[in-house]
TrEMBL record:
Its EC number is 4.1.2.13. Keywords: Glycolysis, Lyase. NCBIfam families: FrucBisAld_I (NF033379). This is fructose-bisphosphate aldolase. It holds the Pfam family Glycolytic. The keyword Lyase applies. GO terms for molecular function: fructose-bisphosphate aldolase activity. It comes from Methylocaldum szegediense. InterPro entries: Aldolase_TIM, FBA_I.
């Protein structure tokens, strides 16, 4: 199993490819649909995601798709199970396995991810359905007096226990400790919090004997807070992000797939490109790519709007964004590609 997981992890971060995170919960997708006047039903959610997954040439830039529990159980309009539909295109099916966030008792403003209970049985079921990798998201907020060491440790421990269960059950875990952009903090504060979180995560992964070569790290980029008056440019984002990663992430990890974390689609692409340009000069040991949700889906969703006649244009918008991010993952993105 070890060789298989190592190969899957390597394929997930193949050069010039990244991951499409399509694992939004029903509630989250309903909020996004509502803003665009799209009715949110099981049928409309399936139609939307099938539109994404069947986009022509998507497999040239997307190595894997993270699915939601509802989606992995659905069939496409031709009767093909969604995981099989993806696999036929050469795209690896994955699945979100955490059960969402709850408040961390006695630590105001901090949260903890639940879902370890019953996880072993769910992993076997998902693998039988065709999933080959998983995702678990921990959330770290920045604010007055936070993050606390207790919050960092609690989430790191859960991530490590999740990762161990996944590897035992034949699935590659994506380990996602997200330091949120929310707030007025500057980029230096984000770097401090991100570095602290990653130190705790890899300490826990080591204690739980996780195989680094059989996992993918999905961190935030080191960026300024959303409400910060001094937004760091891509070059500074690249410098801070790589400095943080070089101090915390073991060489054995095959790839780092950044989340977009609320950045606009073009900003996320520009920052990813700057990171890879600088990474070449530093000769970093990992593949540095993307695992985006809104930064890939915002444009196609706004074009699609639940209308079948908009499908082709929405798919073109998705593939354009995927192509731009694929280029950024190689440090070859040019803003002129946005209009190509």
């Amino acid at each position: 199993m070890s060789e298989e997981l190592t190969q899957i992890a390597a394929n997930m971060v193949a050069p010039g490819k990244g991951l499409l995170a399509a694992d939004e919960s029903t509630g989250t997708l309903e909020k996004r649909f509502k803003k665009l006047g799209i009715e949110c039903t099981e049928a409309s959610r399936l139609a939307y995601r099938e539109m994404l997954f069947t986009a022509p040439d998507l497999e040239k830039y997307i190595s894997g798709v993270i699915l939601f529990d509802e989606t992995i159980r659905q069939r496409a309009s031709d009767g093909t199970p969604i995981p099989e539909l993806l696999a036929r295109k050469g795209i690896i099916p994955g699945i979100k396995v955490d059960k969402g966030l709850v408040d961390l008792p006695f630590f105001p403003g901090e949260r903890f991810t639940q879902g370890l209970d019953g996880l072993s049985a769910r992993l076997d079921e998902y693998r039988e359905m065709g999933a080959r990798f998983t995702k678990w998201r921990a959330v770290i907020a920045i604010g007055e007096g936070i993050p606390t060491s207790q919050c960092l440790r609690a989430n790191a421990d859960a991530l490590a226990r999740y990762a161990g269960l996944c590897q035992v059950h034949g699935l590659v875990p994506i380990v996602e400790p997200e330091v949120l952009m929310d707030g007025s903090h500057d980029i230096k504060t984000c770097r401090w919090a991100t570095e602290a979180a990653l130190h705790e995560v890899f300490d826990a992964l080591t204690r739980y004997r996780i195989s680094f070569k059989e996992m993918i790290l999905k961190p935030n980029m080191v960026v300024s807070g959303t409400d910060c008056s001094n937004q760091a440019p891509p070059d500074e984002v690249a410098e801070m992000t790589l400095a943080c990663l070089r101090r915390t992430v073991p060489v054995a990890v095959p790839g780092i797939a950044f989340l977009s974390g609320g950045q606009s689609d073009v900003t996320a692409t520009a920052n990813l490109n700057a990171i890879n340009v600088k990474a070449k000069t530093l000769k970093t040991p990992w593949t540095l790519t993307f695992s985006f949700s809104r930064a890939l889906q915002a444009a196609p969703m706004s074009i699609w709007r639940g209308q079948a006649e908009n499908k082709a244009a929405a798919q073109q918008a998705l593939v354009r964004r995927a192509r731009c991010n694929g280029a950024a993952a190689l440090g070859q993105y040019d803003p002129g590609m946005e209009e190509a």
